[in-house]
Every structure is written in C-alpha cells, then in structure tokens.
User: What shape does this take?
Amino acid sequence: KQAYKDGLLKSDLNAKIEPIKQAETRRNFLTIEELNSLVKTECNNPLLKRAALFSALTGLRFSDIQKLVWGEIHHSKANGYSIHFTQQKTKGVEVLPISEQAYNLLCEPLKPTDKVFEGLNYSAYENKHLYQWIGAAGITKDITFHCFRHTFATLQLSKGTDTYTVSKMLGHRELKTTQIYAKVIDQSKRDAADKIKLDF
Assistant: This one.
C-alpha cells in the first residue's frame, strides 16, 4: 500500500486481494436454567461469581468489568441504572442500561475512582474456581468467563430482543458480529424441533 502511495507502483495491489474471511467460532452459552443453577451454587470465589453473573446480566466483557469504577455507574428515577464507560477493546464510549438485579450484584458504593469489582483477576488459579463452580452446578459445557457475555446475547435474542438493540448493548461496531448469535438461536430451535420423536 505504501509503495502505491509513494508512486512506486501503478496500482494498489491490496485493493485487488480478497480478504481472508474469519472463521466463525463455536460460542458456548448457558441456558436460563443453567444460569439459575449457578445462582444457587456456591463458588469458592464469591467475587468471581458476582462478576460472572453481572456479565450474564449486562453483556460486559471481563476487561470492562475489571476496570469498572463507581463513577461510571449512574442512576436516575426516569431511566434506572446505567453504566457510562469506554470499552477496553473497541475504545467506544458507551451508555449501557443495566437491570436492578445486575446493580444488586454490586457491593456498597465507594468513592467514584474505586473499582466496583476490586480484586478481580484473570489467572489460571481464578479459572480453576470458575470451572469448579460450573462443575458443582452440574454443567458439563466448556464454559469460560467470556461465555457469560455470549449467554447475555443469546438469552436476549431468544427472549425477543431485536438484533440491533442487542448489538448496541454489546457495543458491537457492526451488526454482522451480533448476527452470529442469531445463528446460534436458529440452531437451538433446530435442535429443539428434533427432540420430540414418536415411535412410528
């Protein structure tokens, strides 16, 4: 591209190359029943449990939950609770409405600069607590922390929230990123349709 700009090439070769399409990854998510099972199951790390459930109720990434400070959480009588923050990954400035249940997962408000989930870390040791908690709830799926974000998106779509709204809540820049979740819902419907079998 630079050679074209510098006049060393007559045409931009990059413009003639088809970009490699990124392969769709398998997105594991939890059903509402599995999520409720996790609510009732004790975790060796209560902070991790609260953060994971908060992700499932808000769609926030681990990095955004980890850096969340009290000054970013707002409340108004008209609109309830919301988070005003800059996404770690995309650097996009977001206003995310959150439910009363999500807010109730938080501890007592501290100073505006204090972290909401103080002490939340990502490590192999913390992951061990996550896997033990998921196993104790009787869930056999391969679930990582990021799957709680997938769970939020999938449950929102399955409850009838439109793709555009889910896209905005996830902070996606492009709608096609969110449409991957719609495909997951379609597959779930397909799987559900095949579950009832009669003895013909």
About this structure: The longest helix spans residues 175-193. The first strand starts at residue 73 and ends at 76. Strands lie at 73-76, 80-86, 93-98.
